[in-house]
Amino acid sequence: MSPETQHAETPVRNEHSRGRRLASWQEHHGWSAAASLRRLAARPLGSLLTIAVMGLALALPLAFYLLLGNVQKLGDALGQNQAISVFLKPDQAAQQAQLLAKELGGRPELAAVTIKSPQQGMDELAKMQGFSGAVQTLGDNPLPYVLQLQPRSDASAAALAQLVTDVRTMRSVDLVQDSGQWRQRLEALLGVGNRIVLILASLLALAALLVVGNTVRVDIASRSEEIGVLLLVGAGKAFVRRPYLYAGIWYGLFSGILAALLAVSIEFALAEPVARLSHAYDGQLHVGGLPPWLLLAVPLVAALLGWLGARLVSAWQLRKAA
Asked: What digits encode the pLDDT tens for the residues 75-84?
């Protein structure tokens, strides 16, 4: 064989060798995934207990997140976004009220500005029990024009407080009625709740990681002799730990699915009492569930946590075995 022919065949052999290694690597990944799943099925009670513990741990922050989101919606129904009433001075006419409404309508904190005329205010007062007779005895209408400022749902309490301060300094304004203290308290409460959910999710994610790590550690310890033989005959550490990594992935994936199912079950369990509560508020209370993207992300994140826990523990155990 000529040197030119040998030189031409070398890249072909290298490419064929890489193809075989890739096929072998893929085959071992498939075998590891199936073997680890069979090991979980071989001890159903222990596997189910591990998955149940992890699933409950991951479902808790989902439940708190659901509760927190609906507390905010309840706050909206109870008056978090209650309109700010701006009473103009008695000498302000309809034209001044319209100009001020147009000016305030450009504020980014507000969703709408409506004008209530003195006659509309008088009509509302006449409908109230005990005031109809007194209204009839009045000669001139003493009520001023009133602007109803409807805040945006995403407006912060600080921005609305600044808005109220600005409106109170206007020359045509006599009085401003605002539930700003309620908004500030609720926003502070929701801020604390969000931080609690974040801390709780971090702690329970760490707990799930430790549960998987301990389970894999026990599994590796029970197969220490088998692992020692594999290392003696030349098996690489990546080859040895691969089934345990897939075991961590399976634990995380199944526990994430369980956590998502538990969260959906909580939503269904709350559906009837929430419907009664919404009816009590004339349908103003709209309670939502967890977003679909979050329910889909939980099993994936849990599988990643399971892989990470198995990766850390298996690397440490195999260093000891070596």
From this structure: 666 555 567 8
